[in-house]
Amino acid sequence: MVKQETKRQHTPSMEDYLETIAMLRGEAKVARVSQISQKLQVKMPSVSSAVKKLSEKGLVAHERYGYIRLTPKGNKVAKDVIRRHKALSRFFIEALDVERETAEKDACKIEHVISPLSLERMIKFVELMGACPPGEASFPKRYKYYLEHGKLPNDSR
Q: Which of 1, 44, 77, 104 is surrounded by the most beta carbons within 10 Å?
């Protein structure tokens, strides 16, 4: 069962940096201060300061004027932020019919504050929507079944 309330250990800003490093690393295999600065639209000294803090917390490895790499601990945090972002975007787009650009912006803001319970419920809701059209009269009953049992009802396939 998902805990309802857990306090995040990292600030939204730290999470944004880790998410950006992970995304840049995926695109170019490495990340540099200048790339992060450009992507987040912040000044390079701000990035350097943030990277230093992330390094002190053991979330990134950075050689002065060199590449920035996520540590295993930083990679875990980044993957979690990316997971939250994708789940929120998907919910906004598929369940609420929000345009992608708006969905992405909203997801970026909410990914830092959403509770694990709400996130997991949103993920399950979108999965169930794919299996059971919401217009059906028994949709709420099927959704509740899915939440309680962790699997789709047999009559939803």
A: 77
